[in-house]
Amino acid sequence: MNSKLVVGISSRALFDLNQSHQIFEKEGIEAYREYQIQNEDQVLDPGEAFNLVTKILKINNFYEKQDRVEVILLSRNTADTGLRVFNSIEAHKLKISRAVFCGGESPYKYVKAFGVDLFLSSSKDDVQMAIENGVPSARIIPSKAKKSQKSDELLRIAFDGDSVIFSDESEKIYAEEGLQAFMDNERKKKSMLKAGPFKSFLVELNKLQSELNQDDCPIRTALVTARSAPSHKRVIKTLRKWGVRIDESLFLGGMNKAEFLQSFKADIFFDDQQQNIEDASAKVTSAHVPFGIKNRK
After folding, report:
1. Alpha-helical segments (H) within 39-108
2. Which parts of the chain span the membrane according to its record (predicted)?
3. Choice among 117, 126, 160, 271 that is catalytic
4. How many helices (H) and strands (E) does the chain have?
5. Residue 69 maps to a domain
6. SS3 32
7. What pairing do the DSSP bridges indicate for beta strands 99-101 and 155-159?
8. Of the spans 14-18, 65-69, 257-261, which averages the highest pLDDT?
9. Three-state DSSP class for 240?
């Protein structure tokens, strides 16, 4: 049996805590605490990552002996204020049993101890610290997409290429020297692309896919990149060398990604560029990966 795929999720990514978060920001921690305790039997509505988490947990239905994936709650709440979150987890019948409540501190410090393969949070600082410590992490942003009432069981995850699956080496050339220099570099380069922050998570997803029956595999992946021919060649050769299969590859040559992500029916899309994420969030749940040259201050 392989080790588990472990996803760490914050309370605000899993549930809609906007109202209580506004109380925290306007009135402070004590008002927030009182509000959560008074409403701890009021079930929270699903948040941006709720559908994603539900589908991830359902992968365990394909395994008979033990769970192959696990979701762990990593929260800035105290156990006291977090009781409403756990009551909501039970009410929504989510199989989440492990949790960390950090009482206002960042929970990122526990992601390595839990062996987290992916950390999702609405906190920019928590995600940044996790990324800097080598954990695939992204900040879930508020989505303008309408929540679909009917959703199939297939888990669809879409990734940008440079600065997400791959390093930002090529993006640096594009940013510093322009498109022509980028294209010239891609033609000349014989070496493979270096790994980016999400390579390890993609590899773990690929392991799951390879274990399951291909006819009813519950996971589908897509690469959605601004690259186009001939810069697609290094991407394909690098993935081949890594032994990683991606189900769909979209080389869009700079076109807006949002409509394509909607057509793919992505449950989540990871990109390093804030503008791409804001565009995509109109159609699908999206998460910003704070890595690479585009995210340097």
Report:
1. 50-58, 83-91
2. none
3. 160
4. 12, 10
5. yes
6. helix
7. unpaired
8. 257-261
9. helix
List all residues 6 or more positions away from 188 whose beta carbon is below 8 Å from its beta carbon. none
Which CATH number fits the domain that encloses residue 128?
A: 3.40.50.1000
Question: CA–CA separation, 103 vs 110, rounded Å?
Answer: 14
**Catalytic residue check, 160:** yes
Q: Read off the pLDDT of each residue in 3-32 and give the average, rounded to a whole number.
A: 88
Burial 270-280 (b: 16+ CB within 10 A, else e): bbbbeebbbbb
Here the tokens at position 153 are: 């069981």
Give the C-alpha separation, 237 to 193, whole Å: 9
162 and 271 in a common domain: yes
Report the C-alpha gap between 110 and 132 in whole angstroms: 14
For the chain, give the mean pLDDT: 90
- This prediction has a pTM of 0.92
Assess whether pLDDT exceeds 50 at residue 225.
Answer: yes
Domain final position from 94, 116, 140:
140
